[in-house]
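If you are new to this repository, start here. Below is one unmodified record pulled from the training split, so you can see the exact layout before writing a loader.
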Amino acid sequence: MKIFKISLLLAIISSSLFSSCVKDIDVGQISNIVLTPIFEVSFIYATKEAGNFDSTNPNSSVIIPELIESDTTSFPLLNNQSITKSIEKIEITYQVDNTFNKDFIIEFKYLGATNELINSPVIVPVQAGNGPFEKPVQTLFVDELDKNEITNLKLAKKIVSTIKATDVPSNIEGSLNLKSKGRYYIKMEL
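And here is the target side for that same chain:
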């Protein structure tokens, strides 16, 4: 009796498999396929540690009224025209870990071939840390670029990152660690 039930069950399963309906495939619809991958790339990494900002008198506790430190880097991320026309949106996430007992501003400027400003500067306010031996205070900032801003950024050849603070003691201790990544949203039609 068991063999009969198993045989009947196998016969039903087999007949349903072989009598399934398959819809014809329209190969002409391949032009309607849209791929939407998301790519993540490392953007800027930097660390600023300071035992002393005042190199002329490192043992003093002089107050620096305005601290400004800049760095310039090439910006080749949007130089490929075939890829940039497919980019729908870019999100740049900045993460700053701060142990300095001081608020900072980090500013990013995109510059063209003749150092002209491309788009508005990105300003990241960084919260004060709790000291060099404490857990860093983390600041997250997301900058979303739309199609128009992406079009403008095609002209950018370099990026200038500037750290700014006011009334900084020259013997302040701590560190700023910047990590950032770009998330590119692509739309490609076949």
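Two things worth knowing about this chain: DSSP finds three helices and ten strands in the chain. The two ends are 57 Å apart (CA to CA).
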